[in-house]
Structure formats: C-alpha cells, structure tokens
Amino acid sequence: MVRACFLAIASAQRAELTPDVPVFGDAVPGHDFSGHFGLVTRGGTPPELIGRIRNDFVTVMRLPEVVERIRIVGQEDAASTPQEYDALIRNELKAWEPVVRKTGATLD
User: Fold this and answer.
1) DSSP 7
2) What digits encode the pLDDT tens for the residues 80-94?
3) Rounded Cα gap, residues 9 and 24, in angstroms
4) Which of 30, 37, 70, 100 is the most exposed place for a label (fewest CB within 10 A)?
C-alpha cells in the first residue's frame, strides 16, 4: 500500500476540503504560492463588454455542477471584479520580479 501525506497546499488560506493541511505560506513565511485562474483581454476593451463577460462568467461559475467540478480538483471559487483581478496580477508581477531577475530567466 502506498501512503501519501500533504506537506502544504498552494493557497493563501487553508482549503475547505483539507482544513488540517497548512498553506505554503506557513512553511515559508512571507510567501504566497497560491495559483489563480481568470479571464483577461487586451487593453482598450470597452468596460461594458468586460462587465457583461464577467457577469456571465460568474453566473456559470455558480452553477452547482461547476462548483462541484471545481471542488473535485481541490480548488475554490473566489470571484472578483476586473479591477481586483488587475490589482492581483500587478501585485504578483511585482512580487515575483526579483525571483525572475535572480534566475536570469527571459522570454524568448
């Protein structure tokens, strides 16, 4: 029999499905290793269209079958506004920039 145990999860907070498993931030203080999924579009997209797409997306994300599928893969829905998601992306870029610079990684 193979036994496995969780060391930590990649999230900013403990997951509902695994409340006893710590987050990576507990193991490495000051770091948030959570993943994010969202929709983005090119600059200049009319705000009305962004709002409509966001509202439709939230409606789909709240369907019981979608909520269940998200839970099955160990994720949790955290809907936000376009402005909040933009701020999150900008903060992530700022937070990871020193790591990328230190590694010398480049986009080719």
Assistant:
1) -
2) 888 998 998 898 889
3) 6
4) 30
